[in-house]
Each structure stands twice: as structure tokens, then as C-alpha cells.
Specification:
There is one protein chain. The radius of gyration is 14 Å and the shape is globular. The strands form two sheets. It has a three-stranded antiparallel beta sheet with strand order 3-4-5, with no helix packed on it. A two-stranded antiparallel ribbon has the order 1-2. It has one helix and five strands, in the order βββββα. Residues about 10 have low confidence and may be disordered. The chain is of the alpha+beta class.
């Protein structure tokens, strides 16, 4: 049987990094994100909390970049 990453001990699994693409063509790596109203909040790997208007996010590119990594990012 094939092993999924969720079957591995946490110490050997790579933490998930979400890629968030903005309409100005910048891309940020986030370890966590959430949407509160019209604001996207995200933490970078250095535990820095950032926030941006959801309207600045390039949803299509964000979805495509994360799909290539097997991750799903849903931004309303």
C-alpha cells in the first residue's frame, strides 16, 4: 500500500506551506492563514502575522500554485 504523509510521524513530515499570490505578482509563503471579513490574515514561517485585503489576492494563481503542491487554499 502507498503511504500518505499523514501516516508518517510528525517529526519527519514537512510542515505545510501555503503560497499566497497577490495581483502585484508578489507571492508569500504562509504556514497558516484565515479570512476575517474582507481581510486575509496569514503567518509567515518566521511567525510574522501579516494581513491584506482579500481583493488584492490573485485567487486563480494562488489556487494553481498550491494545487501543484497538493494543497488546497480556499479564499472566499
Amino acid at each position: 500500500p502507498t503511504r500518505r504523509s499523514s501516516d508518517l510521524p510528525a517529526s519527519t513530515a514537512e510542515p505545510s506551506h501555503y503560497l499566497i499570490a497577490f495581483k502585484d505578482h508578489s507571492v508569500y509563503s504562509a504556514v497558516a492563514y484565515w479570512v476575517d471579513g474582507d481581510t486575509l490574515h496569514y503567518f509567515t514561517s518566521g511567525n510574522t502575522h501579516n494581513q491584506a485585503s482579500v481583493s488584492l489576492v490573485d485567487r486563480d494563481l494562488t489556487e494553481r500554485l498550491n494545487k501543484e503542491s497538493g494543497l488546497e487554499v480556499k479564499i472566499p
